[in-house]
Amino acid sequence: MAAHAANRRSRTAWDITKAIAFGVVVSALIVIVAALIVVPRATGSTTYTILTNSMAPGLPPGTVIVTQPRAISDIRVGDVITYQVESGKPAVITHRVVGISTDTRGETAFITRGDNNSVNDPEPIIREQVLGVVIYSVPYIGLAINAVTGNAKLLVPVLIAVVFILWGLGYVVSYVLSRKKKQAALPEDDAA
């Protein structure tokens, strides 16, 4: 009888531990989704994944950044901007503004450089190329997304799938272990 009560307490403690772990995982998932999907959409921002070491160590490869459009006049030296390599083309770079100058038309142009680079980028960045300023980042999450999908837009489904797969595996393992414990306990209960 005492063994049965101890087993019940142990099982209850395990159930509480599982519930807490599940709550922590779901909470973390909600925070990540809010940071990378909800907030950017609400603020008109865009997410990108850092692919190279040019901004390391502050923005290492795999970091997801959130870039918000900003007036050219509000961009300052020290801001990290995302810009098109060629105006109107999809390829982008994210580098720090290290200087502000004027182009041949008298327009503002930005001198940029990756934090991990020893020289400035070869050409000044003009207004038409600038997509926005990095407002925050989430390190390393992009590595998993790109490894699985190659596409950061599939972030939410991938994260949800991973969480539920891990939760399901944990549930199955827990069930199998509890069945084995019950089967092992049966002969002892019969003998008493």
Automatic annotation (TrEMBL):
Q: Which organism is it from?
A: Lysinibacter cavernae
Q: Which residues cross the membrane?
A: 20-39, 130-148, 154-177
Q: Which residues form the Peptidase S26 domain?
A: 28-103
Instruction: Give me the Gene Ontology terms describing cellular component.
Output: membrane
Against CDD domains, the record matches this protein to:
S26_SPase_I
At the top of the EC hierarchy, this enzyme's class is hydrolase
**An example of a Gene Ontology BP annotation on this entry?**
signal peptide processing
User: What are the recorded GO MF terms, alphabetically?
Assistant: serine-type endopeptidase activity; signal peptidase activity
PANTHER family attached to this UniProt entry: SIGNAL PEPTIDASE COMPLEX CATALYTIC SUBUNIT SEC11
Name of the protein in question: Signal peptidase I
What EC number(s) does its UniProt record assign?
Answer: 3.4.21.89
Q: Where in the cell is it found?
A: Membrane
Q: Which InterPro entries does the UniProt entry name for this protein? A: LexA/Signal_pep-like_sf (IPR036286), Peptidase_S26 (IPR019533), Peptidase_S26B (IPR001733)
| Keywords for this protein | Hydrolase, Membrane, Transmembrane, Transmembrane helix
